[in-house]
Amino acid sequence: MTLYTATVTVRLKSGVLDPEAETTKQALERLGFEIEALRSADRFEIDIEAASIEAANEQVTAMADRLLANPTIHDFDVEVQR
Fold first, then answer.
1. Which of 7, 27, 33, 56 could covalently link to 50 via disulfide, CB atoms 3.0 to 4.6 Å apart?
2. pTM for the whole thing?
């Protein structure tokens, strides 16, 4: 078994209201920054032992599907590194 570190980024799907990002965007604009769009996201870093990088990816994807993200309103990305 090898130790892998997976990063799961969970963000709201396009079209879902993101009040946290909107508030932050407005604050940045008041500070003089010009930005087109801002989205908030949650990032999870998971250390996991697995037989291969593919197995680690499968396990972490299952974690995201079952708990870390709500498939109705979230999209997520999984990145696994050694």
1. 56
2. 0.89
